[in-house]
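Q: Please design a sequence for this.
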């Protein structure tokens, strides 16, 4: 696991590099396009700063690689060993998909749980039933929020979610610092012009 300062430095370096690549590839962008490119660069930079060691970072990179337009950006941010990483990512994503398919097959074959749902909640243990349903719903929401979360078990999902939250915190801090620095720079430039 990266320390926060190391992750911050690595993310900042890769994000700036990604922004430079995006700006040089297309000069005339509208605001919405620019927003999407900034977010894409931030996501890929964050995932590559984690060296594709987590499921969420692998999911972000593989999602970005689906669009041919992003291939140059992903390859540059992953670095020279990106071919090795891509093969590793593909293998890990394939194993995740196999796990997901296995879970679907298992769910379909469990007709007992379907019969239980038709009968309704058990009268004797209603509180436990409600608690389990609530945990299940919240787990499903978390699976949708964490990239690649659909193919994770509950333990892995919580571990990945915690790591993803910490990484997003670093991303937000870097972006906030950049916005503050830009604001201070603009204020000093405007005061110099008015003097």
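A: Design:
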């Amino acid at each position: 696991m990266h320390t926060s300062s190391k992750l911050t430095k690595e993310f900042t370096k890769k994000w700036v590099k990604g922004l430079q690549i995006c700006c040089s590839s297309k000069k005339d962008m509208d605001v919405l396009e620019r927003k999407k490119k900034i977010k894409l660069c931030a996501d890929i930079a964050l995932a590559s700063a984690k060296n594709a060691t987590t499921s969420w970072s692998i999911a972000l990179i593989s999602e970005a690689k689906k669009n041919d337009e992003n291939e140059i950006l992903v390859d540059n941010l992953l670095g020279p060993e990106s071919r090795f990483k891509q093969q590793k990512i593909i293998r890990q994503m394939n194993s995740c998909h196999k796990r997901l398919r296995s879970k679907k097959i298992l769910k379909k074959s469990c007709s007992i749980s379907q019969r239980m749902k038709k009968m309704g909640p058990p009268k004797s243990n209603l509180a436990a039933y409600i608690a389990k349903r609530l945990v299940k719903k919240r787990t499903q929401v978390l699976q949708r929020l964490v990239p690649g979360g659909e193919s994770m078990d509950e333990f892995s999902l919580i571990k990945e979610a915690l790591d993803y939250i910490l990484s997003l915190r670093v991303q937000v801090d870097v972006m906030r610092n950049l916005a503050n620095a830009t604001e201070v720079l603009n204020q000093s430039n405007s005061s110099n012009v008015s003097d």
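Q: Thanks. Anything notable?
A: Residues 173 and 187 are 21 Å apart (CA to CA). The chain has a mean pLDDT of 80.
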